[in-house]
User: What shape does this take?
Amino acid sequence: MGAYWGLSAQEFAALYAALVLVPPVVRLLGPALLRYRRVRPGAERVTAVELAVLAGGPDRAVDLVLADLVRRRWIRVDSGGRLTTTTTRPPGEPLAVAVVLAVSFWRGLATARTLRLHLADSPQIGEVVRGLAARGLVVPPGDVSGIRIACRVLLVGVVVSTFLGGYAVAAIPVMLAGVLVLGAAELVPSPRRTVAGSRLLHGATVLGTATGPGPSNGQVPGWIRRWRGGWSGDPGGR
Assistant: This one.
Protein backbone atom coordinates (compact mmCIF):
# COMPACT_ATOMS: atom_id res chain seq x y z
CA MET A 1 0.00 0.00 0.00
CA GLY A 2 1.45 3.29 -1.02
CA ALA A 3 0.94 6.80 0.21
CA TYR A 4 -2.63 7.98 0.61
CA TRP A 5 -2.94 11.77 0.29
CA GLY A 6 0.52 11.97 1.82
CA LEU A 7 -0.27 9.40 4.55
CA SER A 8 1.72 6.24 5.15
CA ALA A 9 0.02 2.87 5.30
CA GLN A 10 0.06 2.91 9.10
CA GLU A 11 -1.42 6.42 9.22
CA PHE A 12 -4.06 5.42 6.70
CA ALA A 13 -5.06 2.37 8.76
CA ALA A 14 -5.24 4.42 11.95
CA LEU A 15 -7.30 7.15 10.27
CA TYR A 16 -9.85 4.76 8.85
CA ALA A 17 -10.07 2.74 12.03
CA ALA A 18 -11.13 5.98 13.72
CA LEU A 19 -13.49 6.95 10.90
CA VAL A 20 -15.20 3.56 10.96
CA LEU A 21 -15.93 4.10 14.66
CA VAL A 22 -17.63 7.48 14.10
CA PRO A 23 -21.04 6.14 12.88
CA PRO A 24 -21.53 3.67 15.76
CA VAL A 25 -20.41 6.25 18.32
CA VAL A 26 -22.93 8.74 16.92
CA ARG A 27 -25.57 5.98 16.86
CA LEU A 28 -25.03 5.24 20.56
CA LEU A 29 -24.47 8.75 21.91
CA GLY A 30 -27.09 10.60 19.83
CA PRO A 31 -30.19 8.92 21.30
CA ALA A 32 -28.64 8.99 24.78
CA LEU A 33 -28.21 12.76 24.56
CA LEU A 34 -31.85 13.12 23.49
CA ARG A 35 -32.83 11.88 26.95
CA TYR A 36 -31.88 15.30 28.36
CA ARG A 37 -34.61 17.25 26.60
CA ARG A 38 -36.30 20.25 28.14
CA VAL A 39 -39.60 19.45 29.83
CA ARG A 40 -42.67 21.58 29.16
CA PRO A 41 -44.61 22.95 32.14
CA GLY A 42 -47.40 20.63 33.26
CA ALA A 43 -45.72 17.56 31.78
CA GLU A 44 -46.05 15.74 35.10
CA ARG A 45 -49.85 15.46 34.67
CA VAL A 46 -50.52 12.39 32.55
CA THR A 47 -53.47 10.16 31.75
CA ALA A 48 -53.50 6.46 32.62
CA VAL A 49 -52.89 5.56 28.96
CA GLU A 50 -49.96 7.97 28.71
CA LEU A 51 -48.44 6.55 31.86
CA ALA A 52 -48.85 3.00 30.51
CA VAL A 53 -47.07 3.99 27.27
CA LEU A 54 -44.37 5.69 29.29
CA ALA A 55 -43.91 2.69 31.58
CA GLY A 56 -44.14 -0.17 29.11
CA GLY A 57 -44.69 1.03 25.57
CA PRO A 58 -47.63 0.37 23.22
CA ASP A 59 -48.21 -3.22 24.34
CA ARG A 60 -48.70 -2.17 27.92
CA ALA A 61 -51.08 0.59 26.95
CA VAL A 62 -53.19 -1.87 24.95
CA ASP A 63 -53.21 -4.30 27.88
CA LEU A 64 -54.26 -1.48 30.20
CA VAL A 65 -57.15 -0.36 28.03
CA LEU A 66 -58.25 -3.93 27.37
CA ALA A 67 -58.28 -4.73 31.10
CA ASP A 68 -60.32 -1.62 31.79
CA LEU A 69 -62.82 -2.47 29.04
CA VAL A 70 -63.21 -5.99 30.42
CA ARG A 71 -63.72 -4.58 33.89
CA ARG A 72 -66.40 -2.21 32.56
CA ARG A 73 -67.98 -5.10 30.60
CA TRP A 74 -67.50 -3.55 27.18
CA ILE A 75 -65.55 -6.67 26.22
CA ARG A 76 -66.02 -10.30 27.27
CA VAL A 77 -63.21 -12.88 27.46
CA ASP A 78 -64.03 -16.56 27.00
CA SER A 79 -62.17 -19.53 28.47
CA GLY A 80 -59.86 -19.64 25.45
CA GLY A 81 -58.85 -16.00 25.78
CA ARG A 82 -60.87 -14.88 22.77
CA LEU A 83 -62.54 -11.49 22.93
CA THR A 84 -66.01 -10.30 21.95
CA THR A 85 -67.75 -6.97 22.40
CA THR A 86 -70.89 -6.69 24.53
CA THR A 87 -72.20 -3.29 23.46
CA THR A 88 -72.22 -0.92 20.51
CA ARG A 89 -71.78 2.10 22.79
CA PRO A 90 -68.35 3.61 22.09
CA PRO A 91 -65.98 4.34 24.99
CA GLY A 92 -64.64 7.82 25.49
CA GLU A 93 -60.90 7.39 24.90
CA PRO A 94 -59.45 7.06 21.36
CA LEU A 95 -57.32 4.01 22.11
CA ALA A 96 -60.28 2.32 23.82
CA VAL A 97 -62.37 2.97 20.71
CA ALA A 98 -59.62 1.39 18.59
CA VAL A 99 -59.56 -1.68 20.86
CA VAL A 100 -63.34 -2.11 20.64
CA LEU A 101 -63.31 -1.70 16.85
CA ALA A 102 -60.49 -4.23 16.51
CA VAL A 103 -62.33 -6.77 18.65
CA SER A 104 -65.49 -6.23 16.59
CA PHE A 105 -63.53 -6.61 13.35
CA TRP A 106 -62.08 -9.99 14.34
CA ARG A 107 -65.57 -11.27 15.32
CA GLY A 108 -64.68 -13.44 18.30
CA LEU A 109 -61.23 -14.48 17.04
CA ALA A 110 -59.18 -11.69 18.59
CA THR A 111 -56.98 -12.27 21.62
CA ALA A 112 -54.89 -9.88 23.69
CA ARG A 113 -51.88 -10.80 21.54
CA THR A 114 -53.84 -10.00 18.37
CA LEU A 115 -54.68 -6.56 19.71
CA ARG A 116 -51.06 -5.84 20.67
CA LEU A 117 -49.86 -6.70 17.18
CA HIS A 118 -52.72 -4.85 15.48
CA LEU A 119 -52.54 -1.64 17.52
CA ALA A 120 -48.82 -1.28 18.27
CA ASP A 121 -48.36 1.11 15.32
CA SER A 122 -51.88 2.52 15.31
CA PRO A 123 -52.55 6.27 14.92
CA GLN A 124 -53.96 6.32 18.46
CA ILE A 125 -50.71 5.02 19.96
CA GLY A 126 -48.73 7.36 17.71
CA GLU A 127 -50.73 10.33 18.97
CA VAL A 128 -50.01 9.40 22.59
CA VAL A 129 -46.28 9.00 21.89
CA ARG A 130 -46.12 12.31 20.03
CA GLY A 131 -47.86 14.05 22.93
CA LEU A 132 -45.37 12.60 25.41
CA ALA A 133 -42.46 13.56 23.14
CA ALA A 134 -43.76 17.13 22.78
CA ARG A 135 -43.76 17.44 26.56
CA GLY A 136 -40.21 16.08 26.84
CA LEU A 137 -41.11 12.75 28.47
CA VAL A 138 -40.06 10.33 25.72
CA VAL A 139 -37.36 10.42 23.08
CA PRO A 140 -39.03 11.29 19.75
CA PRO A 141 -38.91 8.16 17.54
CA GLY A 142 -38.41 10.34 14.48
CA ASP A 143 -35.25 11.86 15.95
CA VAL A 144 -33.82 8.41 16.66
CA SER A 145 -34.62 7.30 13.10
CA GLY A 146 -32.89 10.42 11.80
CA ILE A 147 -29.75 9.59 13.78
CA ARG A 148 -29.74 6.06 12.37
CA ILE A 149 -30.01 7.36 8.81
CA ALA A 150 -27.24 9.89 9.44
CA CYS A 151 -24.95 7.13 10.72
CA ARG A 152 -25.51 5.07 7.60
CA VAL A 153 -24.78 8.10 5.43
CA LEU A 154 -21.56 8.67 7.38
CA LEU A 155 -20.51 5.07 6.79
CA VAL A 156 -21.20 5.38 3.06
CA GLY A 157 -19.12 8.57 3.05
CA VAL A 158 -16.18 6.77 4.63
CA VAL A 159 -16.35 3.99 2.02
CA VAL A 160 -16.71 6.44 -0.88
CA SER A 161 -13.73 8.48 0.33
CA THR A 162 -11.65 5.30 0.20
CA PHE A 163 -12.59 4.79 -3.44
CA LEU A 164 -11.90 8.42 -4.32
CA GLY A 165 -8.47 8.18 -2.74
CA GLY A 166 -7.54 5.39 -5.15
CA TYR A 167 -7.83 2.56 -2.63
CA ALA A 168 -10.65 0.51 -4.15
CA VAL A 169 -9.28 -2.73 -2.66
CA ALA A 170 -9.09 -1.19 0.81
CA ALA A 171 -12.70 -0.02 0.51
CA ILE A 172 -13.95 -3.59 0.87
CA PRO A 173 -12.51 -4.28 4.35
CA VAL A 174 -13.37 -0.72 5.39
CA MET A 175 -16.98 -1.29 4.35
CA LEU A 176 -17.19 -4.70 6.03
CA ALA A 177 -15.67 -3.40 9.24
CA GLY A 178 -18.02 -0.42 9.24
CA VAL A 179 -21.11 -2.56 8.64
CA LEU A 180 -20.14 -5.00 11.40
CA VAL A 181 -19.41 -2.29 13.97
CA LEU A 182 -22.51 -0.27 13.10
CA GLY A 183 -24.60 -3.45 13.09
CA ALA A 184 -23.37 -4.23 16.60
CA ALA A 185 -24.34 -0.71 17.70
CA GLU A 186 -27.82 -1.20 16.22
CA LEU A 187 -28.34 -4.16 18.55
CA VAL A 188 -28.22 -1.80 21.53
CA PRO A 189 -31.80 -0.57 22.19
CA SER A 190 -32.24 3.18 22.01
CA PRO A 191 -33.56 4.82 25.17
CA ARG A 192 -37.30 5.43 24.97
CA ARG A 193 -37.85 7.65 27.99
CA THR A 194 -36.12 10.91 28.76
CA VAL A 195 -34.61 11.58 32.16
CA ALA A 196 -37.72 13.58 33.03
CA GLY A 197 -39.94 10.72 31.86
CA SER A 198 -38.11 8.23 34.07
CA ARG A 199 -38.37 10.60 37.00
CA LEU A 200 -42.08 11.03 36.37
CA LEU A 201 -42.71 7.30 36.85
CA HIS A 202 -41.70 7.66 40.49
CA GLY A 203 -44.52 10.09 41.20
CA ALA A 204 -47.13 10.83 38.57
CA THR A 205 -50.48 12.57 38.74
CA VAL A 206 -52.94 10.64 36.59
CA LEU A 207 -55.90 12.37 34.94
CA GLY A 208 -59.04 10.34 34.26
CA THR A 209 -59.32 6.63 33.50
CA ALA A 210 -58.14 4.33 30.74
CA THR A 211 -61.41 4.53 28.80
CA GLY A 212 -62.17 8.19 29.24
CA PRO A 213 -61.83 11.28 31.40
CA GLY A 214 -63.07 11.22 34.94
CA PRO A 215 -62.31 12.28 38.48
CA SER A 216 -58.89 11.41 39.84
CA ASN A 217 -57.53 11.38 43.35
CA GLY A 218 -54.07 12.16 42.03
CA GLN A 219 -52.81 8.65 42.78
CA VAL A 220 -51.46 6.18 40.29
CA PRO A 221 -53.72 3.10 40.14
CA GLY A 222 -52.29 -0.05 41.70
CA TRP A 223 -52.19 -1.92 38.38
CA ILE A 224 -50.12 0.91 36.92
CA ARG A 225 -47.76 0.86 39.89
CA ARG A 226 -47.14 -2.86 39.40
CA TRP A 227 -46.28 -2.21 35.74
CA ARG A 228 -43.66 0.42 36.43
CA GLY A 229 -40.27 -0.50 35.07
CA GLY A 230 -38.42 -0.59 31.79
CA TRP A 231 -40.16 -0.07 28.49
CA SER A 232 -40.39 -3.33 26.56
CA GLY A 233 -37.02 -3.91 24.90
CA ASP A 234 -35.38 -1.24 27.02
CA PRO A 235 -32.95 -2.76 29.55
CA GLY A 236 -32.45 -0.78 32.69
CA GLY A 237 -35.71 1.10 32.38
CA ARG A 238 -34.16 3.91 30.38
Observations:
- The chain has nine helices and four strands.
- Residues 212-238 have pLDDT under 50 and may be disordered.
- The CA atoms of residues 4 and 70 lie 69 Å apart.
- The two ends are 46 Å apart (CA to CA).
